[in-house]
């Protein structure tokens, strides 16, 4: 591993080691670019991950103070935990379930195709599916996505069998075990999945792709990566010309450090990235870095989500095997006759008994709650995930008075459901119920959203500088050597789980940064 | 704090991991006759919980309140005792928790117009329900959501199998053994490696 001096101003500094930052770092290192990768969390491994829901939650989750506001139910049920994302080397790729879906062509042109939705700040992406196809292909190959590159699908578990039976009875056409970044066969030095059932807890097999087990070790082998776990970034600094030139962080020993930088890439997830830009205000940038549009922190999206669990007369044992074991894609189309724009995916989901108690009916108790828990072994489950609408006032702000352990203002996450989100959730709950009733369910439990796992849009891409924060390369409109490299870039949310697209954009961005660096443009 | 051992209504079991040694202030019980699945986990049919802030009467009441909030009729008291254990620890650390619990017990007696704890199971539960939304109720509910369900005895009771890595996952242990629905076709669900 490289050791890059604090006063070395030739390196790219990447903040965050998840899907965006971890991938970008590796791609740059492979091209011979020196990278300092600052990760707030510790380094774990397959050995240290735990098959224990609460234990793992304490090990890898981002639990620093955050506040919430708005009408969304998460604010009531989990007021201090708006998002279920990670603070560890590999970021939330340690926790993700592995679903790897391309955004659909029409979704890149949401404004054009969905029209003028009231109260919504819709915009077309400055990129098309065609632009991204070669990069999607590279991402799928890198991640070993099943049903691409000749890789077989995963074998379906019991939870999938139930969903499949219901889907067929309902006439759904496209139901299978998904495109998953989980090895169905040994590949890329990682073994095949043994159906542990703890995908959310960090895969103890390393069968699931993460930046922790794939990108970062490869980057380290190049000798170009200086990974610093336990480094919480406080502020990005700039020179008199307005270009960013250094990053101030607290290191793993609690000491404040200042790393000089030629280029800074922010990939702290859609809550921390805008928080950092806002906390980096200066006399030149009084509203925070890269914020001449006023859009930093705005248009926060978290996907329309919900779950449906159902109990049956016979046992299911849904926890056995992959957490997200299959998908129905039929509802992912844009079809306004359903009463909403955009679409949603239906994906199996299983959580263990400890998390079921916490999430089945947050705040719940009593005989109905107990009846559901009593039938846990007879339960099947699915997650509903669809496109939510970007709204300007759904936003990350920095708190006026609350500070974190380093004295920096904490982020507040404000979210109001849009009527389109609510209509989509109602439709999805109805279809989920129908699927399970077709499979013989004796009781169906619609479950409200968990803390957000898909945090998107708060530094969005736009063709015009006034509409967003970054251009189609993730480069800040205002500052040419500042990049956003995570899901914050998303112009709209689309229906698909975002990780594949975040990785795809990072691969594309690495090409651009390397090219701009050799052209001495940045 | 005066503490002494008491018997609780329903007998219970404690796993090796959670076996709680006897002491001067204890909540004790005996494994129920029908608790075969828990008996397999327990080193002994008797269990005991050492209390540090609450006395045994209060510990017994707290267990009954917890049963009223989360009424799993066949779940052994031994599992509910783990909630008592965590709330007793919280009360030992923070006197306001002890006060909250004691005031709640008084309120229950008031609602029962007498000794709430001496009522039968369902009558107790119906009074506990009236406390919903109070800080007392929420403290016990919020603690229970983790303490009641995040332990090996509860997992055994509800049939959840917990950690699987050490046993090679479920790859050869039933991840696709559901046989009461037709198997998906091979294109949708390919054969395992």
Describe the fold and architecture.
The complex is a heterodimer of chains A (522) and B (193). Chain A has 522 residues and is α/β, with parallel strands linked by helices. Chain A is built from 12 helices and 17 strands. Chain A has a 6-stranded antiparallel β-sheet, covered by helices on one side. Chain A has a 5-stranded parallel β-sheet with strand order 5-2-1-9-17. In chain A, strands 3-15-14 form a 3-stranded mixed β-sheet, with helices on one face. The mean pLDDT of chain A is 98. With 193 residues, chain B is mainly alpha-helical. Residues 1-24 of chain B have low confidence and may be disordered. The chains are: A alpha/beta (522), B mainly alpha (193). The interface between A and B is large, with 58 and 46 residues.
Secondary-structure blueprint:
The complex is a heterodimer of chains A (522) and B (193).
Chain A: E1 12-15, H1 19-30, E2 35-38, H2 53-60, E3 67-69, H3 73-77, H4 110-114, H5 129-143, H6 158-170, E4 175-176, H7 211-222, E5 225-228, E6 232-238, E7 244-250, E8 256-260, E9 263-266, H8 269-279, E10 304-311, E11 327-328, E12 344-348, H9 353-359, H10 366-374, E13 379-386, E14 395-403, E15 409-414, H11 419-438, E16 443-447, E17 482-484, H12 499-518
Parallel strand pairs in A: 1-2, 1-9, 2-5, 3-15, 9-17
Antiparallel strand pairs in A: 4-11, 6-7, 7-8, 10-13, 10-16, 11-12, 12-13, 14-15
Helix pairs in contact in A: 1-7, 1-12, 5-12, 6-11
Chain B: E1 6-7, E2 26-30, H1 36-39, E3 46-50, H2 56-69, H3 77-93, H4 95-112, H5 121-130, H6 135-147, H7 152-158
Parallel strand pairs in B: 1-2
Antiparallel strand pairs in B: 2-3
Question: Briefly, what is this?
Answer:
Chain A has 522 residues and is of the alpha/beta class.
Which segments of chain A are poorly predicted (pLDDT under 50) over 5 or more consecutive residues?
Answer: none
First-last Cα distance of chain B? 62 Å
Number of strands of chain B: 3
The biggest beta sheet of chain B is recorded as: 3 strands, mixed
Helix content of chain A: 25-40%
Q: Kindly give the count of domains of chain B.
A: 1
Overall morphology of chain B: elongated
Question: How much is the radius of gyration of chain A in Å?
Answer: 22 Å
Helix/strand/pairing class of chain B, anyone? mainly alpha
